[in-house]
Specification:
Strand order of the largest sheet: 2-11-10-3-9
Shape: globular
Helix content: 25-40%
Distance between the termini: 51 Å
Largest sheet: 5 strands, mixed
Number of helices: 24
Bound molecules: 2-(butylsulfanyl)adenosine
Length: 703
């Protein structure tokens, strides 16, 4: 898309506009030169979202974006339809009107093994009269399919697949996907109108983080990234769509109209792979780097097998490969059946879904008193693991999935996500299935259960309920919380049963004399336990905050909270409004933190932990002791030999400097250790960044 010279030019222009952005005055800017700024922003969107290799920091991008926004606000007549600012929708969408696709969106025939592929290839050879067919093999992306229409280079319409003939118009939401260009130079290829197909995806990390957030809020997670992507496209709040970080791959040009210029059509590709290259050149994220063009079905089989092995290492889900006849004229000759094109075939990887039977439901009481139904199912293998129990979240979820005891069910385990029930099969019922009955009192302490009006979860509100106390301690010692190795769930239960442990502070008052008399606790294991408990006292503050198990406060929120204060009890002085100012803290979370800190029992528990030696302060938030590095920014990359990375960063802060997260013109020093990689390469391109070694860094510090 951008050659070396263009890239250089755009980098220079970036520097120019970053300087320009420090001027508060936009009077000297004109509609003509602001188009340069748009080019710069588009270039950086492309580097970030399509190439996955940004040149500038998010902060710098935002600075440039805000400058454009300011200019356009002052000069509304200068706004263009494909200005980067035009991705922002008008807020709420009322409806998604039905629209007809220019060409029906057919689905593909599926194949599951080499024999299926060979059979298909034989037919293609017979129909074409060729002895060997050229194929383009590419990933089958597992998301939601969309079609995009560009008229005279501008994105004019985006639609869901719908029933294949008619879909929902979702243009505004699609503009939120930054890898979808708002304009592309099709006219240079003599194309006036074009319809392109692709798949909208949510990558595995974003999906996991999103599900994590849902669960922290007590909302059941989504079954798979496909549902998450499809659901997001239909959200009626555009800003919310933007936050989900959708991605796209465009893999098929289904229809185009030539411009009225004769004899120019030789500019258009004659192969499918050529089309994917053209799309890539025009700024689209096509599977150009993932596709392989091969002759003969044997090579196809080789590549699909090769790709299946890589499947788990990809950042997004693929459920197979798509094999397409590469020659577009031959595609046309092969034509289609009533449902599928004859020139393409989907090859499905081993399923991550399996059918099973719902045998029973157990009700577990969590640390917040929430009673969670857990389905016991007939054990099945899915994606390499045996699954025998699955959380079914709450009553509403059970209703929504239409689950009865003894039902046949479909389960799925996508990537490394926890298994979920996709659906039941009511059509297979025999009449002997029974309803799942929720208990009315706590299965552990028999206290009556309570369901707050605004919640979907039944709770045991007896704060001293044994199950809750034990779960709170288990959570406190767990790996992601205080990480007290060799304590673990089993020991918490044992010590609790022996009355050696009654609450969280009790961990630090354990009677080792008594423990040593228990079976299985020799000197070595007691020493290990003592050392682990001791080490946990200096865990970073965010771990302690997470370990407290405040409702809705997951690991991410705990980090945000820890970075805000010097001492864990500082939150006593925060109002709910102040809490709301923090990133990612919504009303529910703020309320929960507020309530936690208003409860004197919690404060006393924290104070007791402090007296027992647990660190309650933010150790990382160093108070500068001198200002020898004041005003200087640092970033460390590669493996350091003398210092630990965290100590080196603390030294910077102690001496008044700042740590930044990425290489940009705002960075003063890049300190390089062994095997420094892309950050170093990037820093070399920015003159103002000083690249120094660990030794040089140490010399900068006061003696
Ligand atoms: S080509 C007429 N290529 O799989 C051919 N489809 O049933 C249009 N899909 O509906 C489809 N990755 O949503 C094609 N590289 C790829 C694909 C792909 C995913 C989806 C698409 C389609 C379904 C096949």
């Amino acid at each position: 898309m951008y050659n070396k010279a263009q890239t250089n030019d755009l980098q220079q222009l970036t520097a120019h506009w970053l300087t320009e952005a420090t001027n508060t005055d936009t009077k000297n800017l004109s509609a003509a030169n602001i188009e340069d700024l748009r080019k710069v922003l588009r270039f950086h969107e492309y580097r970030y979202y399509v190439q996955n290799d940004p040149f500038i920091s998010d902060f710098e991008y935002d600075t440039l974006y805000k400058l454009l926004e300011k200019f356009e606000k002052e000069n509304p007549a200068a706004i263009t339809a494909d200005s980067p600012t035009q991705r922002v929708g008008s807020g709420l969408v009322k409806d998604f009107p039905k629209v007809n696709h220019l060409v029906p969106m057919l689905s593909l025939e599926n194949s599951y093994n080499a024999a299926d592929l060979m059979d298909w290839d034989r037919k293609a050879r017979e129909l074409s009269g060729l002895s060997e067919v050229e194929y383009c093999v590419e990933p089958k992306f597992d998301g939601a399919s969309i079609s995009l229409i560009y008229d005279n280079d501008l994105l004019t319409r985006a639609a869901t697949r719908g029933d294949g003939v008619t879909g929902d118009e979702i243009t505004i939401n699609t503009k939120q996907i930054k890898s979808v260009p708002l304009s592309a130079a099709f006219s240079a290829n003599n194309i006036e109108q074009v319809e392109i197909r692709g798949e909208v995806l949510i990558n595995k990390n974003n999906f996991k983080a999103y599900n994590q957030k849902l669960m922290e809020e007590g909302v059941p997670p989504l079954a798979n990234p496909r549902n998450a992507a499809a659901g997001t496209l239909r959200i009626k709040d555009t800003a919310e769509v933007g936050k989900r970080n959708l991605e796209v791959f465009l893999y098929h040009v289904s229809y185009w109209v030539n411009s009225q210029v004769s004899g120019e059509n030789e500019k258009q590709p004659s192969t499918h792979s050529g089309m994917l290259e053209m799309l890539w050149e025009l700024g689209f994220r096509s599977p150009k780097n993932e596709m392989r063009v091969v002759k003969g079905i044997d090579k196809v089989i080789e590549y699909v097998n090769e790709f299946e092995i890589k499947r788990d290492d990809l950042p997004y889900e693929v459920d197979g490969m798509v094999i397409k006849v590469n020659d577009l004229l031959l595609q046309e000759r092969l034509g289609m059946t009533s449902h599928h094109p004859r020139w393409a075939m989907a090859y499905k990887f081993k399923a991550r879904q399996a059918t099973s039977k719902l045998l029973g439901v157990e009700f577990q009481v969590g640390r917040t008193g929430a009673v969670t139904p857990v389905a016991k199912i007939e054990p099945v293998q899915v994606g390499g693991v045996t699954v025998s129990s699955i959380s079914i979240h709450n009553e509403e979820y059970i209703k929504e999935k239409n689950l009865l005891l003894d039902d046949a069910i479909l389960i799925e385990r996508s990537g490394d996500v926890i298994p979920q029930i996709v659906k039941s099969f009511p059509e297979l019922r025999k009449g002997t299935e029974r309803a799942i009955v929720f208990p009315t009192s706590c299965p552990v302490c028999s206290h009556p259960l309570f369901k707050p009006a605004e919640e979907a979860v039944w709770r045991c509100v007896n704060i001293n309920c044994e199950a809750q106390v034990v779960e709170r301690i288990i959570h406190f010692v767990s790996k992601d919380a205080m990480d007290i190795k060799s304590f673990g769930e089993a020991n918490v239960r044992k010590f609790y049963a022996e009355k050696l442990l009654a609450d969280v502070p009790g961990i630090y008052q354990l009677d080792f004399e008594a423990v040593s008399k228990m079976e299985g606790f020799g000197k070595k294991s007691i020493d290990n336990l003592k050392a682990a408990i001791e080490a946990s006292k200096s865990q970073p503050l965010h771990r302690l905050i997470y370990a407290l198990g405040i409702r809705y406060v997951g690991e991410t929120t705990a980090k945000t909270l820890a970075n805000t204060v010097e001492h864990i009890l500082d939150f006593r002085n925060y109002t709910a409004d102040q809490l709301l100012q923090m990133e990612d803290v919504g009303v529910k979370v703020a309320d929960s933190i507020d309530r936690f800190y208003k409860d004197e029992a919690n404060i006393q528990m924290i104070e007791k932990l402090g007296r027992l030696g647990v660190s309650l302060v933010n150790q990382k938030k160093q108070v500068a002791e001198n200002d020898s590095l004041a005003g200087q920014t640092f970033l460390f990359t590669g493996t350091l030999n003398k210092l630990k990375r965290s100590d080196a960063e603390a030294l910077v802060e102690k001496n008044g400097g700042k740590i930044v997260s990425g290489v940009s013109s705002k960075l003063n020093y890049l300190v390089t250790g062994e095997d420094a990689g892309s950050k170093l390469e990037k820093a070399k391109k920015i003159n103002s960044v000083k690249i120094i070694t660990e030794e040089d860094f140490i010399k900068l510090l006061p003696v």
